[in-house]
Amino acid sequence: MINVEKALNQILDAIVPLGTEKITLLDALGRVTGEDVIAGRDIPPKDNSAMDGYAVRFADIREASPEKPVTLKVIEDIPAGTIPQKTVGAGEASRIMTGAPIPEGADTVVRMEDTAKDGQKVKIVATIRKAQDIRRAGEDVREGEIVIPRGGVVRPADVGMLASLGRSLVTVFQRPLVAILATGDELVDIDEKPSPWKIVNSNSYSLAAQVRECGATPMLVGIAKDRREDLVVKFKAAMRGDIIISSGGVSVGDYDLVKDIMKEVGNQMQFWQVAMKPGKPLAFGAMGGIPVFGLPGNPVSSMVSFEQFIRPSLLKMMGHKNLFRRAVRATLNDDIVKSKGARHFIRGSVTWAEGRYRVTTTGEQGSGILKSMVRANGLIVLPEDVGACKKGDEVTVQLLDNSLDLTPQPEYL
Ligand code: AMP
Ligand code: MG
């Protein structure tokens, strides 16, 4: 049996990022860029005005002040988006709007507030600095500059930057298609009426939600009976995916056949069993080059195994560099019973109060108890060499979501 760290390293070594695709800018939010995005032009493209006002020659207004206004002749109107037609000569000014190009001859903008209109003339009634209120060509971005490096996650500001560069299509890493297979003779699908001894297949749905939450695309391939023939048929169907997740059938029971299928000719089994709780009977391998995870069937085991191993794998496939959940140190609110040897993941609820995180276990921790997962926003990670923990101990907690109650409200709100 290998430990969690070794299992994770083996898995991540076997997982390779997918190829890239071109998508429209609006779909790019949250995706990872598959190319260095290089500016094809300067932004702004030309020197332009940062204010509504007048474009002037500084030499003319050097001496201007409220007491000694300087009067200039207005020769042109330059709204934003138009090309100036006239050169500003000595004693002249062009009326200019924010974002309009600076006309030839002018080297300074005087904002409207510092002027007084006087028929076809304008009075400069304040002291002005040279080159004031001019935005220089390329002051934001220079042509040829890398504005978003390959491997960056596209955020709203990046969308704006791409738009300003005229990039309506962006190259990003593909999303993996994740085949999800449930196994077990006791399972029925969600819309079937379960007889009293049947269990509704919930794993396929929680796993699909986890897949979607990290940005990949789930594909449900149904429920396989605990029989070789049916498992082979369903696994073959699952091979349309970029990665396969099955749940159930990997323990030591008489009908736990998934490992055998994974070992068959052409399939590679890398390891089975990890020193962790829940999730010990995890199997990892490949079928025809497609990575396959055989997760244990208990609902919490399958979710926790997904969190530890599959989420980082999917993120790697999608080009992400940051593969892991945020973890915080928190003060434990209860005692936890544990023996040394395996790594334990305990469902907990994290809160922030009086300047620190605290974590409370969310009840019964059996690997079939989904309710304590429902109530959890984090997993307390108790390492292999740690034994029982006491209330008041500091522990590490992986945060499973961005619950608002984790962060203190700033005082200004
Ligand atoms: P197994 O790993 O196949 O031995 O299953 C362990 C436990 O998880 C059994 O009680 C199963 O009924 C349950 N289980 C297996 N697969 C699913 C599933 N897809 N949805 C809900 N429970 C499941
Ligand atoms: Mg089973």
Report what the structure shows:
The protein is of the alpha/beta class. The chain has four domains: 4-16 and 175-317, 3-Layer(aba) Sandwich (Molybdenum Cofactor Biosythetic Enzyme, Chain A), CATH 3.40.980.10; 20-41 and 146-173, Molybdopterin biosynthesis moea protein, domain 2 (Alpha-Beta Complex); 48-135, Molybdopterin biosynthesis moeA protein, domain 3 (Beta Complex), CATH 2.170.190; 327-405, Beta-clip, CATH 2.40.340.10. It has helices at residues 4-14, 58-61, 156-164, 203-213, 228-238, 258-263, 299-317, 371-374; strands spanning 20-24, 37-38, 48-49, 53-56, 70-78, 92-96, 108-111, 115-118, 121-124, 134-135, 146-148, 169-173, 177-183, 187-188, 199-200, 217-224, 243-247, 267-272, 276-277, 283-287, 290-295, 327-332, 343-353, 356-361, 378-382, 394-399. A six-stranded mixed beta sheet has the order 7-4-6-5-9-8. It binds adenosine monophosphate and magnesium ion. Magnesium ion (MG) binds at residues 183-184, 226, 248-249, 297.
List the defining traits of the structure above:
single chain; 413 residues; alpha/beta; Molybdenum Cofactor Biosythetic Enzyme, Chain A; Molybdopterin biosynthesis moea protein, domain 2; Molybdopterin biosynthesis moeA protein, domain 3; 4 domains; 6-stranded mixed beta sheet; 8 helices; 26 strands; 31% strand; elongated; binds adenosine monophosphate; binds magnesium ion
Give a quick summary of the entry.
This protein is about 20% helix and about 30% strand. With about 425 residues, it is an alpha/beta fold.
